[in-house]
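Feature request disguised as a bug: please show the residue count (461) next to Succinate-semialdehyde dehydrogenase in the output. Example input:
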Amino acid sequence: MPIATVNPANGETLKTYEAMGEEEIERRLQLAEATFRTYRTTSFEERARLLNRAAEVLDEAQQDIARVMTTEMGKPVKQARAEAAKCAKAMRWYAAHAEALLADEEPSQADVEDSGGSRARVVYRPLGPVLAVMPWNFPLWQVIRFAAPALMAGNVGLLKHASNVPQTALFLEDLFHQAGYTQGCFQTLLVGSGAIDDILRDERVKAATLTGSEPAGRAVASTAGDMVKKTVLELGGSDPYLVMPSADIDRAAQVAVTARVQNNGQSCIAAKRFIVHTDVYDRFAERFVAGMKALKVGDPLEEDTEVGPLSSEQGRSDLEELVDDARRSGASVLCGGERPDGPGWYYPPTVVADVTREMRIHREETFGPVATLYRAADLDEAVLIANDSPFGLSSNVWTRDEAEVDRCVRDLEAGGVFVNGMTASHPAFPFGGVKRSGYGRELSGHGIREFCNITTVWHGA
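Example output, currently without the count:
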């Protein structure tokens, strides 16, 4: 895949870039290693000052970088501005909380004495250069939610971004430089996916984090395992959205539309499988389909656009194949489902019902504005359908019954359960999944400790 900005609204190639050669990659690896030796000794106060300044720089650039993101991958420009604002918020959050999150921990004195010691503590030390392999769908947020905690922990970052968002990738490197970070603290590597293996095998790279597809995660995990290096993986998701009779059905249907089509439906944590109790199925379906039909699809640079194009022609083709396979196998398409005429990689908001386990759309992630609708006889069946997926990223549950909430928290196979609301990420809460959605956690204290050497310090009696 070429490293290029291709506008998904019209298919026009705007900029292309040459991949970095071996000499430039080597120079940057040397710089990362050398910079880490000094940056790791900086105080939390100094790291927080730099990260807060980076947030200010991002605020100042919000309008411009929002247009760049929209032009590179197609998200509505209002959502792009919101993404930039969210990144600045996360940087300020980690600047304010990192020192406390990584404070030394002291075991109880009774345990210390039982170990034969006089005192002990646990300290968190940085690992070194961390390779981040990041996707195009949230081209700022995915990077910042790694970079902010990693830099506050004293690590340095090497970014291999998706090849279709090179301008955003270069902006991120420049952002940290403008904020006053030493040049080697955060570097963008303009390379293709074929270069990842050699970079990860380099002894100077101490760990890796990847957000992306399951095949990409398997490749990085395999190499990292061979080299015995720490990894965090956030992979695909096919999140269930359960609606029970006690829920506010009108509100559940309204939020369901946003939960499905956020970021043009290209979000791992977008709700994708809508599992509705039979008693309220018809009412929910009517309102949900009406809401999907009412969305404005169009130029993502226009302020009132709600759904823009998919990021690539291949992405649209993959989504189209899932819908067509379901239709041929007996599913009902309640709205959408037909590729529009004209330029750009657009696909309409679509709702597919009467889905069976044999259909590809039941097993595979729909990465675009396509929802599947299921009828469940009771909560037992709803949970069964929800868990009948290889993925386990997050989940949504709509009910006013606390016993049903408790049951879902206990039994849903997911890294999150969001009750009477849609899944969202926030720097204070851990983010990640189970099953084929990956392992490890980003954000919160759990995320910042993922790339730390958790060190026991013990003193004899």
